[in-house]
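We both want to read C-alpha coordinates more fluently, so let's practise on a single case. Would you write everything just below, so we can both look at the same thing?
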Amino acid sequence: MSAAQEAEKLSATWFNNVGVAIVATGFIGPGIKARDALVNHEASALYIFSMLLWLAAGWGVHLYARDRLVRRYEE
Protein backbone atom coordinates (compact mmCIF):
# COMPACT_ATOMS: atom_id res chain seq x y z
CA MET A 1 0.00 0.00 0.00
CA SER A 2 1.38 3.37 -0.96
CA ALA A 3 1.82 6.23 1.47
CA ALA A 4 -1.07 8.14 -0.10
CA GLN A 5 -3.41 5.17 0.27
CA GLU A 6 -2.31 4.67 3.85
CA ALA A 7 -2.92 8.35 4.62
CA GLU A 8 -6.38 8.22 3.07
CA LYS A 9 -7.23 5.07 5.01
CA LEU A 10 -6.17 6.76 8.23
CA SER A 11 -8.20 9.88 7.44
CA ALA A 12 -11.27 7.75 6.70
CA THR A 13 -10.77 5.92 9.98
CA TRP A 14 -10.51 9.29 11.72
CA PHE A 15 -13.75 10.47 10.04
CA ASN A 16 -15.43 7.26 11.18
CA ASN A 17 -14.30 7.86 14.76
CA VAL A 18 -15.57 11.44 14.59
CA GLY A 19 -18.95 10.16 13.43
CA VAL A 20 -19.15 7.78 16.37
CA ALA A 21 -18.11 10.60 18.73
CA ILE A 22 -20.81 12.90 17.34
CA VAL A 23 -23.43 10.23 17.94
CA ALA A 24 -22.14 9.57 21.46
CA THR A 25 -21.89 13.19 22.57
CA GLY A 26 -24.98 14.47 20.80
CA PHE A 27 -27.37 11.63 21.43
CA ILE A 28 -26.28 9.29 24.21
CA GLY A 29 -25.05 12.00 26.59
CA PRO A 30 -28.21 14.13 26.54
CA GLY A 31 -30.26 10.94 26.35
CA ILE A 32 -30.24 10.64 30.12
CA LYS A 33 -31.72 14.12 30.46
CA ALA A 34 -34.11 13.47 27.60
CA ARG A 35 -35.42 10.30 29.23
CA ASP A 36 -36.32 12.24 32.36
CA ALA A 37 -37.86 15.03 30.31
CA LEU A 38 -39.91 12.60 28.23
CA VAL A 39 -41.10 10.69 31.29
CA ASN A 40 -42.18 13.95 32.93
CA HIS A 41 -43.67 15.22 29.63
CA GLU A 42 -41.41 18.28 29.73
CA ALA A 43 -39.42 17.74 26.53
CA SER A 44 -40.05 20.24 23.80
CA ALA A 45 -40.24 19.21 20.18
CA LEU A 46 -37.19 21.36 19.47
CA TYR A 47 -35.11 19.45 22.04
CA ILE A 48 -36.12 16.10 20.57
CA PHE A 49 -35.47 17.40 17.05
CA SER A 50 -31.99 18.60 18.01
CA MET A 51 -31.13 15.17 19.42
CA LEU A 52 -32.32 13.48 16.24
CA LEU A 53 -30.35 15.99 14.17
CA TRP A 54 -27.16 15.13 16.10
CA LEU A 55 -27.84 11.45 15.54
CA ALA A 56 -28.36 11.98 11.81
CA ALA A 57 -25.19 14.06 11.52
CA GLY A 58 -23.09 11.47 13.29
CA TRP A 59 -24.59 8.63 11.28
CA GLY A 60 -23.94 10.54 8.04
CA VAL A 61 -20.30 11.10 8.90
CA HIS A 62 -19.98 7.43 9.87
CA LEU A 63 -21.49 6.22 6.58
CA TYR A 64 -19.30 8.57 4.54
CA ALA A 65 -16.15 7.35 6.26
CA ARG A 66 -17.19 3.71 6.01
CA ASP A 67 -17.76 4.13 2.28
CA ARG A 68 -14.29 5.66 1.88
CA LEU A 69 -12.72 2.81 3.85
CA VAL A 70 -14.50 0.15 1.80
CA ARG A 71 -13.42 1.76 -1.47
CA ARG A 72 -9.81 1.94 -0.25
CA TYR A 73 -9.74 -1.73 0.70
CA GLU A 74 -11.29 -2.79 -2.62
CA GLU A 75 -8.55 -1.11 -4.64
